[in-house]
Each structure stands twice: as C-alpha cells, then as structure tokens.
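Researcher: Quick test of sequence recovery. Tokens follow.
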C-alpha cells in the first residue's frame, strides 16, 4: 500500500501547494491562529475524518483508524507564523502586514493535510491508527505542544514523529541527530539599577554602562571556565540598552539574552553561575539589580532507535537520495515535549532553494515547495517503519 499512498500524495501536489500558499497569504501569530485552526477543521470535515478542535488552545487532532491492526502513531505539524514583514515578491506573499510564515509552518500543515487526504482512500489497507497533531504556537514559549499534551493528545499513542522543512538543508535530504538534536532555549532579562549623573563627575554615580560591560564580559567566562569543555552551550546577550547623551552617566541598563543547552545539569549550572556573577559585580559596585531567568523549551532529544530507523529507511522515500546524521543544532523546538512522553524522532526535510541562502525567520525566507511532498511521504514512511519495528 505504501507505493499507492506515495502515488496518491504525488497526485495531490497541486492541492498541497495551494494549501501552503493559502496559509502563507493568511498567516497568524502564535496563540492567535483562530482562522488557520478553522481551516484545518474544515479540511478534516470535508475528508470525513473524525477530529477534535480547540485542543489545548487552537490545536486540532484528527484520528484515522486503519482497517488492519497496528500501533497508534502521532504525526505532528505546527501552524503559527512570525511577527516579520515579508520581503518576498511572490504571488503568494503574505496579505497580513507585519506577519509572515517565515519558518515553513505553512508547509508543515499542507504536507500533513495532504497525507491525511491521501490516506483516507486507503483506510482499509492501513495498519494501525494515525493521529494527526496540528499544533499552534510553536514559535512562542510556553508554546502549543505542552497544553496539547496536557489535554491528552498522547493518550493511547505509541510513538510520535515530526519534521521541519529546513531551508539550509539541500532538497532531497533528510537530516537528524540521534539523541540531542535541538537545544533547550531559555531567555533572561537583567536590569542594572545604578545611579546616573554628570559625565564629568563619575565618582558621584553608579555607572550602569560600566557595570553592564563588566557583567557581559564576565558572563563569557561561564562557558570558558565553569562548564566542562566537552559539554555544549551558548550564552548570548542580544540586547544592551542604556544611556541618553554623551555627557550623562547612565543610571540604568537593560540587558537580555538567551541560553541554549542540551543537558539540564548544564542549564542549572549556567543559571547559578549567572546569578553569582551578576550579584558579585553588582556588590562590587554597590548597585542593585533585577535578574529574571525564563526557562523555555527543553532540548529535543531524539530516541536512538527511532532516529536510527529514519536514518536507515528515509532513503526509501521517493525524492530522498540521502539521509544524514548531523551534529545537534542550537535552535529550539517544542517538539521536545512530545519526545519526553513517547518514543519518536524529529527530523529536517531538505527544502533549500538552490542558490538561495535566507535563513529561517528572515523576511526573505522561502522553501522549495517540492519538499512538501518529501515531508508528507517521509512522515508516512516513518509511520510504516515504526509499524514494522518489533520488540
Ligand atoms: Ni519552525
């Protein structure tokens, strides 16, 4: 039946592309995806596949029970967009000012809906049960995965798979790592509460820029001197705001940044070391501060056996000529939560437009739409491969 389903997906190419383009033109931000959610609901309604709407927010879960015995496997696609003004001059350009599908989630949704349509005709031959997880709010922590899991979407599910169309990965390739694949992504905010004053009378002030600069430098020593060099992590300060004029000493500085880790012990050490450094520097300068650390998504940890299965069997997907085991990436994904609950794996489906190098979250981000067929088929291949896994 596999070949028949692959062929059915090919026959749906135009429809899948049209879905992607429609969603691309009508993007919605995380936690506001009401119309997208309704679009998905309407699609399942037309297919006659039973579904549940508004699951843990705007989530949609559809269930297709095959005519043959087998395991229950969830396939996930996210559907939120980003606060970015699109700069692509394409017929399917976003019609919403300042909002854009700049991460390919429109394509994820189209691929999964296409797969659902291809499968519904072959329901009797299908082993096991497919659970289609359409998830909102991936881009913005606390995210959409956690509330959907809390709403019970993984009950009775044996394994879960998902893919991300990836613009840095060549078309025709599937990339993933066994074990740690994507990083845990945290955020921090720091306010230094010094004392402003005249630029020529510094001894009567507590210069927030000087104090902030010390902290920025000291924070770099966490990775170089406090964390095991064989462990991987990032501490980045992305924002440092202070000062009004050239001859005024700044009384306040606001800093924020991100921490990326693959290991909760490392994450914990970094949090502790940050607090110590900030406290220490501020004591030395007799200054108050406010430090807030927000834990974001945990790392995406692919299960060894399931990741291995995709690396071995992904090549059976028409259009895929290579699967590659890659180094983990420091980007984050709330797919992590599903993998904390069930075996499974997350992988990148190559979607690079040849000669084009705009990364995810860029105003000129785009994908090679042929990758949508690959994503759809690769998810189904993962589904069938897992059915065949014994033990
Ligand atoms: Ni994304």
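Model:
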């Amino acid at each position: 039946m596999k070949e028949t389903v692959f062929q059915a997906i090919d026959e749906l190419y135009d429809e899948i592309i049209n879905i992607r383009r429609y969603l691309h033109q009508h993007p919605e931000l995380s936690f506001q995806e009401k119309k997208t959610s309704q679009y998905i609901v309407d699609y399942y309604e037309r297919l006659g596949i039973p579904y549940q709407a508004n699951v843990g927010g705007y989530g949609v879960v559809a269930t297709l029970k095959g005519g043959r015995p087998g395991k229950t496997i969830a396939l996930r696609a996210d559907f939120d967009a980003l606060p970015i003004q699109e700069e692509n001059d394409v017929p399917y350009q976003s019609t919403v000012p300042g909002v854009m599908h700049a991460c390919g989630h429109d394509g994820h949704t189209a691929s999964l809906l296409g797969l659902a349509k291809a499968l519904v005709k072959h329901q009797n031959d299908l082993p096991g049960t497919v659970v289609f997880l359409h998830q909102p709010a991936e881009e913005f922590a606390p995210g959409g995965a956690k509330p959907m899991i809390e709403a019970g979407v993984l009950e009775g599910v044996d394994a879960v798979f998902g893919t991300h169309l990836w613009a840095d990965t060549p078309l025709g390739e599937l990339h993933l790592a066994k074990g740690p694949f994507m990083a845990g992504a945290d955020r921090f905010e720091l306010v230094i509460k010094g004392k402003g004053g005249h630029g020529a009378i510094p001894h009567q002030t507590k210069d927030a820029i000087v104090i902030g600069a010390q902290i920025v430098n000291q924070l770099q020593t966490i990775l170089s001197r406090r964390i095991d060099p064989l462990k991987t992590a990032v501490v980045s300060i992305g924002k440092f705001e202070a000062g009004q004029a050239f001859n005024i000493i700044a009384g306040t500085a606001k800093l924020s940044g991100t921490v990326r880790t693959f290991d909760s012990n490392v994450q914990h050490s970094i949090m502790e070391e940050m607090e110590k450094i900030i406290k220490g520097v501020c004591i030395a300068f007799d200054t108050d501060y406010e430090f807030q650390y927000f834990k974001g998504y945990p790392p995406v940890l692919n299960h060894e056996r399931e990741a291995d299965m995709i690396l071995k069997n992904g090549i059976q997907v028409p259009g895929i000529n290579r699967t590659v085991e890659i180094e983990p990436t420091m980007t984050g994904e709330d797919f992590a939560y599903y993998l904390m609950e069930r075996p499974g794996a997350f992988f990148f489906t190559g979607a690079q437009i040849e000669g084009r190098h705009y990364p995810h979250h860029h105003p000129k981000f785009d994908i090679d739409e042929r990758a949508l067929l690959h994503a759809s088929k690769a998810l189904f291949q993962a589904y069938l491969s897992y059915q065949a896994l014994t033990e």
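The pocket of nickel (II) ion is lined by residues 103, 105, 138, 164 (CB under 6 Å).
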